[in-house]
């Protein structure tokens, strides 16, 4: 367009000035909407009264499945420890909404997959010590040869066992093509929710990701479907700063299912991460992306020189870790690591404070293209 006069130019400039606030308003609105979604996905348990140590079990007294099994004798020793030390053992729902005695520490026992051995060997011990648990059920296998029936589940529910949703098929949802993943996941979880509600009379409020695997879209689906919280399988302590949609649990199966480790983990404190981005503890690695961890932590009170990093349970050489202090902020970087071989790899940081109390943080690196691990 060619302007014929100076007046035309001035007129156009005035229109631009009038429209500029509208453009800025629209831009800020879109930016705010994006930030709100990010904040929602990293929503903290700001109303939590005290920290919660959560453990996850699968099989009881089934030695032929060593990676997910706990020996009955060891399980009883763990329960005896909780009883004698005065821990409050609550269901997940009770713990997240707890308003009682804040002096006694809280432990939540969760059980995934609803294997028959829970009722046969685990539940009698819970009865003996007067404890409850939260059971996450994948509904496709209910009534199967080695799984609990609907009648079993109703019986357990009457005894105070809280029921949670663990999907219908217990599939590797991260291996579903991206364009189909959200719909496939939501249909599967909705089917489980419908069955659990119809058969047990109560709609589960909590979800546990199969294998602890999830993507941003899967996590958003859980939010949109109305669940109150979701559990993953990276280890750690549930506290006010924890991500409500990816709460940590300490696994109790295989080589880590022993009494000494149980005692140690029940006394740990959460390493308070300052950047909410890193409260999203599952990282999907694709296209040869490198495993890295970058955290910001308040340095106050920590013996920073005693920081330790473990990957897949093995201590990492100091050459892979760099740290820096800046105005009370402790920057921790774990990078330049060797390639990962497993589908799921846990990275854990531990550090003591000046009184010798240990703090814990972990994240899970997931490589969906790697071999699927049961």
Task: Describe the protein in words.
The protein is of the alpha/beta class. It is built from eight helices and 20 strands. The protein has helices at residues 6-41, 72-84, 92-96, 116-129, 150-158, 178-200, 216-224, 259-266; strands spanning 52-57, 59-60, 69-70, 88-90, 106-112, 134-137, 162-165, 206-208, 229-231, 237-238, 250-251, 269-270, 282-284, 293-298, 308-311, 314-315, 321-326, 329-334, 344-352, 358-366. The strands form five sheets. Strands 1, 4, 5, 6, 7, 10 and 11 form a seven-stranded mixed beta sheet that branches. Strands 12, 13, 15, 16, 19 and 20 form a six-stranded mixed beta sheet that branches. It has a three-stranded antiparallel beta sheet with strand order 14-18-17, with no helix packed on it. Strand 5 (106-112), helix 4 and strand 6 (134-137) form a beta-alpha-beta unit. Helix 2 (72-84) packs parallel to helix 4 (116-129) and helix 6 (178-200) runs parallel beside helix 7 (216-224). The longest helix has 36 residues, at 6-41.
